Amino acid sequence: MEKMCPFSLLILLALWIFGPNLVNGDAQQPASPPIFILGDSTADVGTNSYIPHCNATANFPHNGIDFVNSRPTGRFSNGLNSADHLARLFGYNSSPPPFLYLHSLKYGLQLGIYRGVNFASGGSGLLDDTGLKLNVLNLPQQINQFVTVRENLITALGHETTKALLAKSLFCITTGSNDIFVYFKTRSTMPKEEFINLLMEAYENHIKTLYSLGAQKFGIISVPPVGCCPANRLLNATRCFEPMNDFARYFHLAIDKLMCKLSSELQGMKYALGDSYKMTMDVIDNPRPFNFKNVGSACCGHGTLNAEGICNATANLCSDRKQYIFWDMFHPTHAAARLAANTLYGGPTLYVSPINFAQLAAEN
Q1: 305, 297 contact by CB (below 8 A)
Q2: Does pTM top 0.85 for this prediction?
C-alpha cells in the first residue's frame, strides 16, 4: 500500500482537529450558496425512503443510532453523511432535504429555492442500468428532478434571477462506485480502460446537461478505495481487494482529465475535484492520529468483518463508533464522513484540486 508522508499526515490531522479555516488561512466564510447534491448512497439523505418498492433503503435501526433521538433517517450512516457535513461547513444545519420529500409537501419545492435540494439515491451510478434492479433513481432521473426545481425557480424568481442564482450554486456529485461494483459482480470482461472510458462518456453528458440548465460550479467527489470496503475485503481474505482499487485509481485519473477538458470548453465552468481515493487510503494506512482504530471491519453488520449481512436491528453493533472508518459493509461512519468533508471543503491540492470546495464557492 502507498504509505503516507509526514506532510500529508500533518495536513489531514490539522483538518480533523481544527477544521478547514486552518488550511484556508481565512476565517471569513462566504455567504452560503444553494447546494444541489446528486449521486449515490454516500450522499443520500432519505431519497430512497420515498421510492415505492425500493430495494436499497436504510430507514431502519441500527442506522441513525447517533442521529437526534437515535432516529433512522434513510442515511446509510450511524449519524450524518458527507453531504450533511459539507452543508454544515457552508453554514447549513444539514444537507438540503431530498427532492421527493419536498415534492410531497404542498409548498415544498418553494422551500428549497434558496437552500438547495438533495437528489442523491443510494445504489445509483453513472450508467443508466446501475441500480436498475434496486429500483433507485439513476442520474438522468435525478437531473430530471432538478429540471422540475429549476422550473419552480423560474416561476418564482424569473429567468434572469434564476440564472444568477444557479450560477453561484454548488452542484456536488459523488458517483461511480456502484458502477465498479456491478462490473465485478457481473464478471464483466470489458477491458478496464474501455469501461472507465464508458463511465467518463456518461459523466461528460451529465455535466454538460447540468451546465445547459445553468450549473457552473461543480464539486466532484471521485471514487474511494472501494476494494477496502469490508464487503470487498471478503474477496481477498480480509485484505483490500486490489483489482477493484485499481479501477478506482484509474477512475480518478480519468475524471481529472475530463474535468480539465470541460472547464476549457464550457465558458464560466469551474470545478473542484476531491481525490477520495488518496484521502481515504492515507487514513487507512495511518489511522491512529485521527483516533481511528478499526479500518477493516464494519461497525454494524453480520459475520466476518460484520460484512456478510446488512446493518439492521439484529446486527452486531460496535460501541466505539468514532473509532471505526466503516459503518456498514460499504459506507463510512459519521466520523469518517466528517473528516472527508473537512478535507473537501478546505484541503490542499494534494487532496482536492485545482481548488477546494470553499474556494469554489467563493469564486465569482
Answers
A1: yes
A2: yes
